[in-house]
Specification:
Blueprint (H helix, E strand, L loop, with lengths): L1 H23 L11 H20 L25 H14 L1 H21 L4 E8 L23 H12 L2 H11 L1 E4 L4 E4 L23 H10 E5 L5 E8 L2 H58 L4 E2 L2 E2 H35 L3 H8 L10 H23 L4 H55 L1 H35 L7 E4 L12 H26 L6 H5 L5 E6 L27 H14 L5 E6 L5 H16 L4 E5 L6 H9 L18 E4 L2 E5 L2 E2 L2 E2 H5 L2 H10 L2 E5 L8 H4 L6 E7 L5 H10 L1 H6 E9 L1 H4 L4 H11 L1
Parallel strand pairs: 9-18, 10-16, 10-17, 11-13, 11-16, 17-18
Antiparallel strand pairs: 1-5, 1-8, 2-3, 4-5, 6-7, 12-13, 14-15
Helix pairs in contact: 1-2, 2-16, 4-14, 6-7, 6-8, 8-13, 9-12, 11-12, 16-17, 17-18
GO molecular function: protein tyrosine kinase activity
InterPro entries: Bact_polysacc_biosynth/exp, P-loop_NTPase
Keywords: Coiled coil, Membrane, Transmembrane, Transmembrane helix
Length: 790
């Protein structure tokens, strides 16, 4: 057995050396990759090997204490989306009840709302604004149609306003006999005699009975008119608590709109026909008088006209046309003669030849055309010979002389052509002068008749306007007469009102679904807010995030304390007994303590952040755990204000055990509680702290010689407290954190303020955990806690 242990220890030492070698080689070893089970197993093995080997006289191995801080050479945590999903899933599981409560409460309120609210039923009709059937009446002033509107949108908006007017509402109220009840704020219909609602050539019967304004106001509240998308269809919706009344009002609105359109058209056509008839008689007489005046004036002044124009006027226009043409001919001849003369004067053969082709007076057998062809041929031969043999060649010189001779002949012919062009210019100028003299004489004759012509035109315009007005009014009169016998409106009903079976408000399914959704959302929001504000320790991961090793959970009630007892209050019947479910947590805690330092005696402080009876219970259980394994243990009650450990020890051990805390005066005698277990209570002295005196260097040296382990139940730790001040005197600390009670920021502030306590903190135990709610935060921890309880 010893050989096996020695071999295992040698193998472990080799592994430790290998790890140190890897660190020296700057290899990064991710300690976070080890599972919690591997860490615990390794710690237990180190503890067994060290204790067994030390008891057999072997040297102990120095193991550096675990620092709560992350080593500098360890890689940062790799982001894992699965971890975020797990955290989100945990929040959903924890706050599901709150979201369900919100959804249930919202559903209950929705049911109450649906029970007490008055349902509304909707009935609708659709009106098609048919503009094509009224094109015959498009030009009538008495019956405007959509073509006279600026746009189709304006016309539709106008008809929608007409439907919502008080006139149409009055027709509906009178047709249905509607009355308004102020108490119930509802409309009611009285039985009315049946009417023939078919369209006829006669106008709808008009009544002058006044309509209650309250009825009209109620109808306007129940009415909704809108355009169906971008079509020429108007939908009329009417809502009412009575589905039958809603159907009747929707039908009445559609018929009232059509009746109103027909009545307005008939009344407008009748008024227009009456006015037009009187106006036509006057226009006919005025038109006849104006035409007679025109004929009389023309006969008196001997004004002969054809096609409505005087002969002098027609002659003057013809002369002006001839004068414009002659001046154009003169301008063209002058320009042609000038350009051709410039070419001849400058001896520009190419320009002369190009202009000859456009002259209309040159015959095909003219000499200049043959000269042109000879010149172009000789010039082409000269370019070919000079390009091949050079310009100084004899043949090139001969050809060049021929070209020059032909050019001189062309210039001679061009001079004769120039004289011909100059003659054309003189002829054109003479023609312009002759026509100008004729225009002048004709103009003087026309001016003589100018005054009489102005008077004649005034008379003709007056007669023409009377004739046009007479014909226009006569046409409109005929149209107005036809409209009186035409039963046609600008719209027609394309759908009938139907009796609604289901209310349009409230929609039960939609209201319930919306209420459940909003309630669940509100509950989920409250749950998330509660989750964000919860800054206490709920899982071991929260402890490890602060760099503190997590040692395990202690369930509520497993310490033998009253669950209702909080703080420093210890119930009279509270007893702490050894529970098998706590054994793994106690063993793991002591393993973590031994890993901090390999001395023969260790002074361990049990610390919490608030007054806690669970801390004292954990201290007592650790002392009994160590004493049961044959180790000499000194248990010190360092909480002089609460004495919770003293009360628990008195209840856990037999009455014959001596407790110095029972004496009236403070004492420093140690009382044996059980085999290998001594107890010493600490009380405040008038001159100072007895705990400080007990943990002095001289006292610690004497204690280390007598005991293997010293467990001190410390008062609540704060950045400035007795536990923080004495941190350097301890070999290790064990933190006791209350599940859902201890705040994470308090522990973080304490660790940041006291480096001695941070470096000596072996780990933390989460106590008073609720097993049923723990599974919502740490399923694996809850499972192990449940397995230990079985």
């Amino acid at each position: 057995m010893i050989e096996h242990i020695s071999a295992s220890r040698s193998h472990h030492i080799a592994d430790a050396q290998l790890k140190r070698g890897c660190r020296r080689a700057r290899y990064k070893f991710n300690l976070l990759s080890l599972t919690r089970h591997q860490v615990v197993t390794s710690c237990r093995l180190l503890s067994v090997l060290d204790v067994g080997y030390a008891r057999n006289g072997g040297p102990s191995v120095e193991i550096s204490p675990i620092s709560p801080r992350r080593p500098a050479n360890v890689e940062p945590d790799v982001y894992e989306p699965a971890a975020d999903l797990r955290r989100i899933g945990g929040v959903v599981r924890r706050q599901f009840k709150l979201a369900a409560m919100g959804a249930g409460l919202a559903a209950l309120l929705a049911l109450l709302f649906l029970y007490f609210v008055q349902p509304l039923y909707l009935s609708s009709v659709k009106i098609l604004l048919d503009v094509n059937q009224n094109q015959l009446l498009a030009s009538s002033q008495s019956s405007p149609t959509p073509q006279s509107a600026t746009t189709a949108e304006d016309f539709v908006a106008t008809q929608m306003a007409v439907i919502g007017s008080e006139v149409v509402a009055g027709r509906v109220a009178r047709s249905l006999g509607l009355t308004y009840n102020p108490e119930t704020e509802r409309l009611s219909s009285q039985p009315a005699s049946e009417k023939d609602t078919r369209l006829t050539t006669a106008p709808p019967a008009e009544t002058t009975d006044p309509v209650d304004p309250a009825v009209v106001h109620a109808l306007n509240r129940a009415l909704s008119v809108f355009r169906v998308e971008k079509s020429m269809v108007i939908e009329i919706d009417v809502t009412d608590p009575d589905p039958a009344l809603a159907e009747a009002m929707a039908s009445a609105y559609g018929q009232a709109y059509l009746d109103d359109q027909l009545g307005a058209r008939y009344e407008s056509a009748r008024n227009a026909a009456t006015w037009l008839e009187n106006r036509i008689v006057r226009l006919r007489n005025q038109s006849l008088e104006a035409n007679a005046e025109v004929e009389t004036f023309r006969k008196q002044n001997n004004l002969v006209a054809t096609d409505g124009r005087l002969l002098s006027d027609q002659q003057l226009q013809q002369l002006n046309d001839r004068l414009s043409e002659a001046r154009s001919n003169l301008t063209r001849a002058t320009a042609r003669e000038t350009v051709f003369s410039n070419a001849v004067d400058t001896r520009n053969i190419d320009s002369i030849l190009s202009q000859i082709t456009s002259m209309s007076g040159i015959t095909p057998d003219a000499p200049i055309l043959s000269l042109r062809n000879d010149y172009l041929g000789a010039n082409e031969r000269y370019r070919e010979v000079s390009a091949r043999w050079g310009a100084e060649n004899d043949q090139a010189r001969a050809i060049r002389a021929e070209v020059d001779r032909l050019a001189n002949q062309i210039l001679g012919e061009a001079a004769r052509l120039r004289d011909g062009l100059a003659g054309d210019v003189r002829v054109a100028r003479s023609e312009v002068d002759a026509i100008t003299n004729s225009v002048a004489s004709t103009t003087s004759q026309f001016q003589a008749d100018n005054s009489t012509l102005v008077q004649l035109r005034n008379l003709e315009q007056r007669a023409t306007s009377y004739n046009a007005l007479y014909l226009d009014y006569l046409t409109r009169y005929q149209e107005a007469v036809q409209q009186q016998t035409l039963s046609m409106t600008t719209g027609r009903q394309i759908s009938n009102a139907q009796k609604a079976n289901l209310p349009v408000f409230p929609r039960n399914k939609i209201v319930l679904a919306l209420a459940v959704f909003l309630g669940a959302a509100f509950g989920a929001g409250a749950g998330v807010a509660r989750e964000l504000m919860d800054n206490s320790f709920r899982s071991g991961a929260a402890v490890e995030r602060l760099g503190v090793p997590f040692l395990g959970y202690v369930a509520r009630g497993s310490l033998g304390l009253d669950p209702s007892a909080k703080g420093r209050k210890i119930p009279a019947h509270g007893t702490v007994g050894m529970d098998g479910a706590l054994e793994p947590v106690l063993a793991k805690t002591m393993i973590a303590v031994r890993m901090r330092r390999r001395d023969s005696c260790k002074v361990v402080g049990i610390v919490s952040l608030e007054p806690s009876a669970a801390r004292s219970a954990i201290t007592l259980l650790l002392a009994r755990h160590e004493a049961a394994r044959g180790r000499r243990v000194l248990l010190i009650d360092g909480d002089s204000a609460g004495h919770a450990l003293t009360d628990l020890a008195r209840a856990a051990f037999p009455p014959e055990a001596a407790f110095d805390a029972q004496q009236d005066q403070p004492t420093r005698r140690t009382a044996p509680l059980a085999e290998h277990l001594d107890f010493q209570a600490t009380q405040d002295e008038p001159g100072g702290s007895l705990l400080t005196d007990l943990l002095s260097l001289d006292r610690l040296a004497a204690v280390r010689d007598r005991y293997d382990t010293v467990l001190v139940d410390l008062p609540p730790a704060e950045p400035i407290s007795e536990a923080s001040a004495l941190a350097a005197s301890f070999d290790a600390f064990v933190g006791v954190l209350e599940w859902g009670g201890t705040r994470t920021d308090h522990l973080r502030a304490l660790l940041e303020a006291n480096s001695n306590l941070r470096n000596r903190l072996a780990g933390a135990v989460v106590v008073v955990a609720n097993p049923r709610r723990l599974k919502l935060y740490d399923r694996e921890g809850a499972r192990r806690l449940r397995d230990r309880a079985l």
